[in-house]
Write a structure and sequence with these properties.
2 copies of one chain form a homodimer. The first copy, chain A, contains 3 helices and 37 strands. By secondary structure, chain A is mainly beta. In chain A, strand 6 (142-149) and strand 7 form a beta hairpin. At the A-B interface, strand 14, strand 19, strand 29, strand 30 and strand 31 of A face strand 14, strand 19, strand 29, strand 30 and strand 31 of B. Chains A, B: One of its GO terms (cellular component) is fungal-type vacuole.
């Protein structure tokens, strides 16, 4: 990460082994964690949030096979609710990607006018780096590569952990990669089996280049190629990452499970890339490109721009290193640089998204073409959650005469999961002079006049979301907090009667809603803010037209942690 | 254009010479034009609107050197306020691109379940087509190429005019290009001098291909190449167009006019492309790609996605053929397919944008790079406008203590032109915990509580627009009418004191606002809707921070047609 326009009064950066001697009390957040602070009722239940302080991009994601723990690090400023220097790597672990343990600061910058900026972690099983001896299990030979942001430049540092990722030793010969640039950051390292090399992608940010370097030992890096000027450019490139993503050839909702089992599994390479600011929807956005990688050069299949998520709050997604069965699991920052510092939440600011399982699948964006598309499925361990209430309806014909209400308010904690599948009979639209919309409002339990408005409009073919119906000044008056979002949706499947069917799977967790359309062919992640403890708990289904919408399936669960 | 999801009860299309015998009264709009209809006070003064009926994409734009008239055709359904079949080419002319004369229908489809879809016009000076004899002046040998949309396919038709573009004869051997596709449309034809060929670009829409064909006679077309899978794909490609755009090498606002005069003039080819639906901001959007063209193949310089305009209401831009000095002048539909049919305006629906002069210039999107960018400057003939009131201020330091109001209400007709240039001293921001915003509200003259909120926020580096502050139900409740827009802005120049200066030039014409940032390096065109006759007439400048914003120049003119 780079704080836009942040100007530093120059101070030399003491490179080499860190002797961090800051005015900041790094025990602050540990103390705070153990006490009851602030508005805990607003804290998401299954999305990671730091106990106190500012958090942004996820860093160093990896899975520890020895402990079966998922490790998440992140850009962290424990003593502030806004980004600035110094910035650290915070650290959290999860055994299920659904519940989280906060471990406070893990990696520090060299001094208090520098930053331990974004980066990644790999497991150096074969000790290519020489950082380890036999006292460290191969599966716990943890090496972090990250950007040290100083007043004079951004260079790449290495650090390693001998205790399973809780504390780090800084490599004495840092930096490991330095091209004397102030805009060179966010190394994501992977092991490329075919060439038996480590591969680093990082951003030469303001030149719109993703640079690719290779190494045998994580210490000496050789430039191989640039992948540049792809996608939406915005102000600058940030947080690139290369992943080998499984291609599921046949995932057709019309076919039976048996035929799905015969799917072949193949792989394609995907380059992820974030830009900020300058997203077309404002602020931050995460893009991806599908292609091939030969160990040195990434070649995109085409020149199309595609977004990982179409919401306003999904940035800097990183994938986990060393996942158990090589599945591709990613997680992003669930906020936006345009307003993350201003959201009406204390004593922490911002959350991560849920972890997502990522695959590539053939997808029909229209009747005449098919293309590989990134599918995202949320990872939730339901075994650690109670369903406190649930509603299930089928074959509900919507009319203009009445709205259908379902109240889920018994023990509302603000955690809802829903699936809505609907069929559209466009021939029943009698006039195109007004929208033909189904609305699926999620209303507050204390005040139903605050609500999240979701829905689908037939003539535009679009799913819409309005997060602007709130009493909070932040929502009403911050013009950067764009409230209405529109997302074009292709049919999930065509029913036996020839009518299109659409599907959305949603997770609401206090002030975050993640929407997964059509099994995850597109997604939209957005934060929303309502009056304190006015959690969403009442569902309202209505239609502006008669006999156009048939809800084939509606399932809503109110969940709670055990 | 293609109406999404429009299903036709199949009827064969009578190809060949048209014998149009419709139930529609094509004289309807001519009659209506001569009477006083509906809410004429809401009609834009210098943006083209049809007198009655539905209008969308501009078509067949050309300049007639014999009459010095600019001709604009457009997708037109005179008897409806929503798109549908049959659809026609409407026609208007202008001597100054500021005032408009409506001529009603010019081109018809073959029958009333077909459409004369989008296309273009060229001047066939040398009579390559054989459509003309010496009775038609070379500069008035007008040939239209357009898509005939029938229930079975979309094929390309030719028609020619012997009376200066007011009526057309249909080529007896139509179609001139037919690949038996239902998604093949919007031919834009240019003369390529280097190869002495006509070049047609058109969309193989749902395959995301811009196809390039060449011809010697406008009748026989040979396939040359595809330009495919570039930019944001959306649901489908529409309205491509290739233009040879002047490159102004040195346009530096810090240099004097004298040094600007020494600029070299060169050219690059630009491919324009519209997509709808599926824009990241919802619905329709217009993209462009800069590159080279050898007469057969367009090669983009890079794989970046760029938008012609960043607002919600700018679609299907086309450039004028045969402009007087080969300047590139374009004009777009100032609406969005997501909601164009629902806007609270009668008895016509939707407007065109102002014409724009288009050039390519070096532009610095950030401190470390420079790239060619499309610059757009509005074309307004001020000689036909009166300035009824004007305000000019310089060096205005904004504080949190008071807002500055200027009232322009004497003879308000809703036509305003303004220039705002401001300097930002970010070091005066005392806290990053809240936005550092300058707002430039344009308030209604009848009800100041309805207003268009514009402004700039320093921490995000973004210009914002909120068109949601209105009493109208359409604005308040239509979720597809996204209200808040955010547009990242680079400095226009750096002042002598090292501080960044930004600039916006705006034109408000009843319910349309067109914003041109930094001499046109980016633009944002948006419609907005307020209570009847509540035209914008009061300007309010305010700041959420002290001493950060200095307005170097503010000029506002209230204009009227003579």
């Amino acid at each position: 990460m780079k704080i836009l326009g942040f100007t530093l009064t120059a101070l030399c950066a003491a490179l080499g082994v860190h002797a961090y001697n800051s005015a900041y009390d790094l025990t602050l957040n540990r103390t705070a964690m153990n006490s009851s602070v602030g508005h805990e009722t607003n804290r998401p239940l299954i999305h990671y949030t730091p106990r106190v302080g500012w958090m942004n991009d996820p860093n160093g994601l990896f899975f520890d096979e020895e402990t079966s723990l998922w490790h998440v690090y992140y850009q962290y400023k424990p003593d502030a609710l806004v980004a600035g220097l110094p910035i650290f790597w915070g650290h959290a672990t999860s055994k299920d990607l659904t519940s989280w343990v906060d471990h406070g600061v893990a990696i520090e910058p060299a001094d208090d006018v520098s930053g331990a900026f974004s980066g990644s972690i790999v497991i150096d099983r074969n000790n290519t780096s020489g950082f380890f001896d036999n006292s460290t299990l191969p599966g716990q030979r943890i090496v972090a590569l990250y950007t040290e942001d100083s007043s004079s430049k951004q260079s790449q540092f290495a650090a390693y952990s001998l205790d399973g990722g809780y504390t780090f030793n800084y490599y004495a010969q840092n930096p490991v990669l330095d091209i004397n640039s102030t805009q060179f950051r966010d190394p994501k390292v992977i092991w490329h089996d075919e060439t038996q090399r480590w591969v680093m992608t990082l951003a030469l940010s303001q030149e719109y280049k993703i640079q690719i370097y290779t190494s045998k030992n994580l210490k000496t890096w050789n430039f191989q190629s640039n992948f540049s000027h792809y996608g939406f450019l915005g102000y600058q490139y940030e947080c690139p990452g290369l992943s080998k993503v499984p291609v599921l050839q046949s995932v057709d909702p019309n076919t039976t499970l048996a035929s799905n089992n015969s799917s072949s599994v193949d792989f394609k390479w995907v380059m992820f890339l974030s830009i900020n600011p300058g997203a077309p929807t404002g602020g931050s956005v995460n893009q991806y490109f599908i292609g091939d990688f030969d160990g040195k050069t990434f070649t995109a299949d085409d020149s199309a721009s595609r977004f990982v998520d179409n919401g306003k709050d999904f940035y800097a997604m990183q994938t986990f290193s060393d996942t158990p069965t090589n599945e591709v699991v990613g997680l992003a920052w669930a906020s936006n640089w345009d307003y993350g510092a201003y959201v009406p939440i204390t004593p922490w600011k911002t959350s991560m998204t849920l972890a997502r399982n990522l695959t590539l699948r053939p997808y029909k964006p229209n009747p005449e073409s098919s293309q590989l598309t990134l599918y995202s499925e949320p990872i939730i361990d339901h075994s650690i959650l109670n369903t406190t209430q649930s509603i299930k309806k089928a074959s509900l014909n919507l009319t203009t005469e009445e709205s259908v209400f379902y109240h889920l308010t018994k023990t509302a904690k603000g955690l809802l999961e829903f699936t809505l599948e609907w069929k559209v009979n466009a021939t029943a639209i009698t006039s195109k002079k007004s929208p033909a919309a189904m609305t699926f409002n999620l209303r507050g339990i204390e005040d139903e006049e605050e609500f999240l408005k979701l829905g689908y409009e037939v003539n535009s073919g679009a799913f819409f979301l309005d997060r602007g119906i709130s009493d909070l000044d932040f929502v009403r008056f911050n013009p950067l907090f764009t409230t209405r979002l529109v997302h074009f949706l292709e049919p999930y499947r065509i029913d036996q009667d020839g009518l299109p069917v659409y599907k959305v799977h949603g997770i609401v967790d206090k002030d975050i809603v993640e929407l997964f359309f059509n099994d995850g062919s597109s997604t939209s992640t957005n934060t929303f803010y309502m009056s304190e403890e006015n959690f969403l708990g009442t569902v309202e289904l209505s239609s502006s037209v008669d006999d156009v919408f048939n809800v084939l399936n509606l399932e809503i669960k109110q969940l709670n942690t055990m």
